Amino acid sequence: ERDGMIGNIYSMGLALQALGATGRFYAPREWDCAQAFSVVYSHEYRQPMAIAQVLPALVGTSYLEAAGLDCAASAGTSPSLELCPSPEPATTGVHRAPITVHYSIVNKLQGRHFNYTTSVQVPGGSPLLEVLQVAAAEKPDIFSFQTNQTSWGPMVISIHGLAANPDDRTYWQFFGGKDALQEGVGTYEPRDGEHIWAVFSTY
Asked: Which residues are annotated as a binding site for cyanocob(III)alamin?
């Protein structure tokens, strides 16, 4: 129903592991394995945690089976270093054409409501986090924000002085147009002219 997506791109790794491992014990509702894996293949994983969760599924195993692996028996079958792709050349110092990103912050949930929009320029290929940083540097009284570092990368916990609160089940959710972003601010790369919305939300 979602072109192979199970949950979101971050939950795909564990979902594929679970579906692969439990298929031996019961007959779940039929699912299109190839379609789900095509979602994984088409995504560029950058976060170590996401990579660690999706790799077992890609080799047909799961965390549940890790304890039974015979490392000695498989030592001779590991791919040689020659088969590994060469690292991409460093891009330090390479000029990237600037792009314009429109950025809005919206709170219609708590306290004094607000809706602010700005446009910033960042180098092409910059993560969304850089858009937030430029906006905050240009208009700190409006677009200031705070993050917490997690195993999935930086997570925005406060914008314009309004902090997410698990007791209230509130958080900052990011959208590209009407669609919620499937990546975090540390990895999502906005397109030129894209409008990103940070919306104070509840779950």
From this structure: 8, 53, 181, 203
